[in-house]
Write a structure and sequence with these properties.
Elongation Factor Tu (Ef-tu), domain 3, alpha/beta
Length: 389
């Protein structure tokens, strides 16, 4: 009998995952990951990890499986939280959920599970794993399009994928809840978690403001006729121009007009609309540039502002991850996603002068450095990389 350690989060998805594995004849162990317990940056009565742990224990009791809690808060702070703050301080927008899967769930947690003699680790992710004719594994999108979480696993490796099971990836969310109700699981009608995965109900801006110092600065509005935009619009959208198409715009206060004040450039992200407090403008304002060194935030009006929309991006070379090496081809066309829940976009992956770029068929709005770009072949997630600029 194969042994599986399930990451029981105290939610309905991992609860049903554990139940389904039992039905399939696996020996199942439930393990709850405690990733954060620094109450200095949370409101203790709103941080639900204790409640989640209790719910996970109740589910394990109901299913009749062993249960334990593993404290990974040290590793999480070192690998995820510190990195996240470092990126925000540089004006970049990291994705802690992608990093959590790569660094914690399928690394530290997986190693702990293997020490218990596990053959596999299982989670409640809405994605699938399928073996191809070469014996390699593909990461496949979940059947429920509205819940597909393959993007969050875009940095998983072939070795990690070979040891993972996704028991609910073939189900719709409504089916998962119905199974939980039928089995009398306490998590059946529990709401999906909100806020940061490691802090609880606290929202990201509030969490950042408790960790990063406030620093008053100017918000500068850049006009749509800026010279850089005109030069960009004159370029042919072709592979041979990829380096120029991916060059980031740079602004200075003299390029526009001061329209408001902010509390620190590192609290903002490209494409952000809320929280700018820019009043008296005929159209909504969006962040189009961040300078954390000089503490300026640059904005433009309307979603079609030329500073917000680009055809190309450059990837951070050291971050490129190919789940299946078979697809590692230059000038290949893919369906691409640059943020979670974004509709897949047509584009081409291009390697030039040992650097990797993406050229899109249509302009993309709010390309944010620090986020992950993931590329797909049909419903198979092939690879990913961090957006450099």
């Amino acid at each position: 009998m194969k042994r599986v350690v399930v990451g029981l989060s105290g939610g309905v998805d991992s609860s049903v995952a554990a139940h389904l594995l039992l039905e399939q004849g696996y020996e199942v162990i439930g393990m709850f990951m405690k990733n954060w317990h620094d109450e200095s940056v949370t409101i203790s009565d709103e941080c639900p990890w204790i409640d989640d742990s209790n719910d996970a224990l109740l589910v394990a009791d109901k299913l009749g499986i062993p249960f334990q809690v593993i404290d990974l808060s040290k590793e999480y702070k070192e690998r995820i939280v510190n990195y996240m703050f470092s990126e925000y301080e540089k004006g970049r927008t990291p994705n802690p959920d992608v990093l959590c899967n790569r660094e914690i769930k399928f690394d530290v947690f997986m190693k702990a599970a293997m020490e218990l003699g596990a053959d596999y680790v299982a989670t409640g992710h809405y994605c699938q794993k399928k073996e191809d004719e070469n014996g390699d594994y593909n990461l496949v999108a979940g059947v429920d399009n509205s819940k597909d979480q393959s993007y969050f696993l875009c940095q998983i490796t072939q070795n990690q994928l070979s040891k993972v099971l996704f028991p609910i990836g073939h189900l719709e969310k409504i089916e998962v809840r119905n199974i939980a109700r039928k089995e009398g699981l306490i998590t059946a009608d529990k709401k999906d978690s909100q806020g940061l995965c490691f802090v609880g109900k606290i929202k990201l801006p509030e969490f950042l403001q408790q960790q990063l110092k406030t620093k008053k600065g100017d918000i500068i509005e850049i006009p749509e006729n800026h010279l850089q935009f005109k030069k960009y619009q004159s370029l042919n959208v072709r592979s041979e121009n990829i380096e120029k198409l991916a060059v980031p715009y740079t602004y200075s206060p003299s390029d526009g007009n001061k329209v408001a004040m902010h509390n620190g450039a590192h609290f903002y992200t490209i494409g952000q609309r809320k929280g700018l407090h820019v009043g008296g403008r005929p159209e909504p304002s969006f962040v189009i540039g961040i300078d954390t060194n000089k503490n300026f935030v640059y904005t433009g009006q309307t979603k079609i502002h030329p500073g917000l929309n680009r055809y190309a991006l450059k990837l951070k070379k050291s971050s490129i991850n190919w789940i299946n090496k078979e697809y590692n081809v230059n000038e290949e066309s893919y369906m691409i996603r640059i943020r979670y829940r974004q509709i897949l976009q047509k584009g081409k992956l291009i390697k030039k002068n040992e650097e990797w770029y993406i050229l899109f068929e249509n302009m993309q709005s709010a390309i944010s450095p620090g986020q992950f770009a993931a590329w797909y072949k049909e419903d198979v997630l092939v690879g990913s990389g961090v957006i450099d600029h």
